[in-house]
Structure formats: C-alpha cells, structure tokens
Amino acid sequence: MKKQMRYVMQIVTLLFAILLLPFSVFAEKSLIPMGHSIGVELQLQSVYITNDVLLKNGAWLKAGDTIQTMNSQEIHTLQEVRSLYTSASGKMIDVKIKRQQKTQHIKLKKEELEPVLSFFRDQTDGIGTLTFIDPETKEYGALGHQIIDSVVAAPPKFKSGSIFYASIEQIKKSVPGEPGYKISSIEHNAGQLGSIAENNVYGIFGKWSNALEQGFPKPMEIMQPSEIKVGKAQLLTTIEGKKVEAFDVKITKIDDKSLQFEVTDAQLKKKTGGILQGMSGSPIIQNGRFAGAVTHMFIESPEKGAAIPLTEMLKKQPS
After folding, report:
1. Peptidase S55 domain spans which residues (predicted)?
2. What pTM was computed for the model?
C-alpha cells in the first residue's frame, strides 16, 4: 500500500512540475522590448471580393466571395486573374465564385469584368507595433491581438506573411468616441524584417530575418502577473518617424490575463489624445522589467487602455 501511495505521489509531483514549467521558463527568459511601428502583410489563400458589386447583367458579386476558377482555370492570386483577363480571347469569361459554402457561375463579357477588377484582392495589410524579439531564437511577437479581416469578419486564411518597418508621417488624434490612428508608410525598400508564421488570439508570431541592431534595447526579464503592481510604468511606442519613445502611464488594474492602464504623459496626450489604432503591441515596462503589451483602447476614454501580461501573450492562446 505504501509503495502504491509513493507511486501516486510521484505522478502528482511530476504533473505539478509540468504545469509549472511554462511559468518557470517565462520567468528565466529575457526578451528585447521593441515598440517599433511595423507594416503587416498577409498573402491570402484565395482572391476575395472586397465590396458588393452589381454587374451589368443584374448579377451580384458580394463582399467575401472568393474566386475559384475563371474559364475553368484555378485562381489563387490576383496576378492569375489579371493574366487570364489579359489573355482571354473569347467574348465571355466564366467566373466560378464561392459564397458562404455554395458555388455558382457568373458569365461576364471581358469589358464587364474590367471595371470590377479593382474590387479583387489577394492580400490584407495594416499597421501595428512590434512587441518583442527573443535574442536566442530570433522569434518575435507583435500586435497583442489577432488580425481580423474586415471583409470576411474572421481571421484570414493566409499562405505567407511579412512584416516591414513603417514610418509614422502624421497622427490623427483620438477623441472620445472616435479612435485616432497613425498615418504611415511601409518601408518595403528596407527589406522584410520577418516572416509571419501564426496569427493567434494574442498576436502575430514568426521569425525575425534581420540582424539584431546595436540600437535595440537590452533584453529585459519578464514579469509574472503577480509581480505587476498598480502604479507607474512606461509605454514604448512610435508616434513620429521610426523613433521609439518611452511615455509615462499608470497601471490601474491587474489580473492574471489582463491589465488596464491610463496615459499620464502630457506629451503623448497632447500629440495623440491617448491611445491610437496601430499602438496595439506596444510594450509596457515597469521597474526595468517587461510587464506586458497594449491590446485595446477604451473608445469613450482614449487615454485609457487595456493590455495583456507578457506571460499570457507568450502562450499565444488563452488557457
């Protein structure tokens, strides 16, 4: 009986150790806090229709429709659509579309298809903030929340993705009831910074392609949620050009999976009105340690925002 009890206790102890493993790993790991503005581009698996379009023959193309074939040729990219359109010699082009789970055929004259090509797309893009780079594995995380495609109102199915530096050219300030945003240009000429492997609930993740620049901050120890305190902290983000700056915030509420904060920095409030669209992913630092990442703003009170502890973001999915 004692031998059986000893065996059970060994199993329980092992399971307890396994459950604690992710937290001990996070506690020992140090990550580079970033705050750089990035352009995010996802190459979609299909060609989508972006708007409802009434065709001359009375048929409709609906936002979210996907192009399956044109003249029986499979379509996966916008370039394939344009090439087939250019080379089509017949009077009619047979377009097979998928709408919700059903397919249908629409026949169009070549001149009827031309004006609607501008409503076809095979990629989605946007602006966000780079959260961290792991100096050992060169993995990165950004955004702090999942990318949802506005056309299909769901996480887009993508075959590849890239991140690039983005330069902030102008700011549209946030006001109560109307979120502001960054007006940015994506610096494709500077080259791809990294690939996108995952688009999860807590952000995008992938491999950093470039060398780690000398100007990057030093790696910081990750804070456990229990160590984050109500009080002063700093937000790292970009509001002009590519310059990352630290701005004062106050953490006002904490639990294991989220925290709330308020912008107290007079310069940031004057320039932006508080939190902007595009700031999601901005690192939050407290007492020289890496606490979390911005995820949302409160629309009616744009100086207030929400974030997740970095330990939670590293899980990639809620537990």
Report:
1. 97-319
2. 0.84
